[in-house]
Specification:
Blueprint: H1 16-29, E1 35-36, H2 51-61, H3 76-87, E2 99-102, H4 105-114, E3 121-126, H5 130-140, E4 146-150, E5 156-157, H6 159-167, E6 172-178, H7 190-202, E7 206-210, H8 226-229, E8 235-240, E9 253-258, H9 264-280, H10 285-295, H11 300-322, E10 328-330, E11 338-343, H12 359-369, H13 376-388, E12 390-391, E13 393-394, E14 404-408, H14 414-432
Parallel strand pairs: 1-12, 3-4, 3-6, 6-7, 7-8
Antiparallel strand pairs: 2-9, 4-5, 8-9, 10-11, 11-14, 13-14
Length: 434
């Protein structure tokens, strides 16, 4: 074309979590049975939505107003309900005007990073959930700026690394926290969150905290919400219903804004986000309408607790299956429903393979791993898929140089779950010894 129409950050928009589905679906056509352990959709993995929750939604569907537009920021009564829930924590006070609904947190993430000044950067964790790291990098047209999550220390943020990244890069305007974390399954102690808040305060930054797994942590771990530790630092907390209810297909998430009045530039930036939402008119009305009724239902607390207990049990099964496998580093998952497994440095090479009986599947896998620039962990992931049907995501697709993979804890059948992780353990040993 006579004029370049490609955005400067287009090459940074990657999402291997779904890209690998294309590969898996092609292999299925060749006769491969697949276990989809790549994406965090509890419904796809067999979780059942309880009847009482469906009845609330059905009743709302019968009401004409749920078919109409909501306010641009979202349904007022729902925003008032959320503000009241946050204010009960007693650490920061917000009202309905400090909450904006989006069509899923993907929509919110796109706008939060997309409306930053191009030269203003947000420091993101490494490994980092792809939607965040890709959106931040795309807005700037450069690779993401990252701080270390340490696999040798429970995947906790390296506070010294955060401070150095902030101190020596004046372009950094904000810091992203994901707690509980995706992709590592880590849950951050309150003192770590407080330390990051203090860094933001000293360097005059704002914070973004993805809290979509806010109530999904276990194994005796404790944490805090951003609202409980933020003090007077400008910040955005991101929450939603896709994982907790779970209702990922609703595409319903929101942001809570803290301390908008503390910085006029931060306030002006938030105005741009709201104005962009106003251009769209609003987000989907139905899930916003039913949210307060669902989370205050008498059965909701027990329902969520049972789910969390199952994740806890399965996290320990997964850990027991993989912890003694030579050549990898495994941390027990304590929150969300993911486990990140690291390969020891230097242990992977381009001659390692897994046996694949189906000749067509083998040929496709060999073609996929043939390019010289194929990441070593991606090579393992493809061979694992072709040889066993277990579909996971290479860790290097999460903005990190650490070779490994992310796998979910979402399989609902315990026997099948143990089989999947035992299969992965055997495959790792076979691959590394090939």
């Amino acid at each position: 074309m006579r004029t370049n129409i490609v955005h400067i950050g287009a090459g940074e928009l990657t999402y291997e979590i779904r890209n690998i589905v294309n590969v898996g679906e092609k292999l299925q056509k060749l006769g491969l049975k697949t276990n989809w352990e790549n994406i965090g959709d509890p419904i796809a993995k067999g979780e059942k939505v309880p009847d009482w929750m469906k009845e609330i939604v059905v009743d709302a569907v019968r009401q004409d107003h749920t078919y109409g537009y909501s306010s641009t920021k979202g349904v007022l009564t729902t925003r008032e309900f959320i503000a009241d829930q946050t204010n009960k924590l007693g650490k920061v006070q917000i009202d309905a005007e400090d909450i904006i609904f989006f069509n899923g947190l993907g929509d919110a993430i796109s706008k939060i990073f997309g409306f930053l000044k191009r030269t203003a950067r947000v420091l993101v964790p490494t490994p980092s959930y792809s939607t965040h790291s890709s959106a931040e990098a795309a807005h700037a047209g450069h690779s993401p700026l990252t701080y270390i999550l340490d696999p040798n220390n429970h995947w906790y943020p390296d506070l010294d690394d955060i401070e150095k990244c902030v101190k020596y890069n004046p372009a950094v305007a904000g810091i992203l926290i994901i707690n509980p974390d995706n992709p590592t399954g880590a849950v951050y102690p309150q003192e770590i969150l407080e330390a990051i808040v203090e860094i933001a305060r000293r360097y005059d930054l704002f914070l973004i905290c993805d809290e979509v797994y806010q109530h999904i942590y276990y194994n005796g771990t404790k944490t805090a919400t951003l609202a409980e530790v933020i003090g007077d630092v400008p910040a955005i907390a991101m929450r939603g219903i896709s994982k907790e209810m779970p209702w990922p297909g609703a595409r319903c998430g929101w942001i809570e804004i803290y301390n908008r009045d503390k910085d006029p530039m931060f306030s002006k930036y938030l105005d741009s986000i709201l104005n962009s939402k106003m251009v769209e008119v609003c987000s989907t009305t139905l899930p916003q309408t039913v949210y307060p009724m669902i989370v205050t239902h008498p059965e909701y607390t027990d329902y969520l607790l049972k789910r969390v207990k199952r994740y806890e049990k399965f996290s320990n099964i997964a850990y027991e299956c993989l912890k003694n496998v030579k050549g990898v580093l495994v941390n027990r998952t304590n929150g969300a429903f993911y486990m990140s497994v690291c390969f020891e440095e230097g242990i992977l090479n381009t001659s390692q393979v897994l046996p694949i009986d189906n000749k067509e599947v083998k040929g496709m896998i060999e073609e996929l791993v043939a390019p010289e620039d194929t990441a070593l962990d991606k090579r393992f992931v493809y061979y694992l898929l072709g040889a066993t049907g277990v579909c996971v995501v290479p860790l290097t697709s999460f903005a990190t140089m650490i070779n490994g993979f992310r796998i979910t804890l979402l399989e609902t059948d315990e026997e099948e779950f143990e089989k999947i992780f035992s299969t992965v353990a055997v495959a790792i040993e076979s691959y590394l010894n090939s």
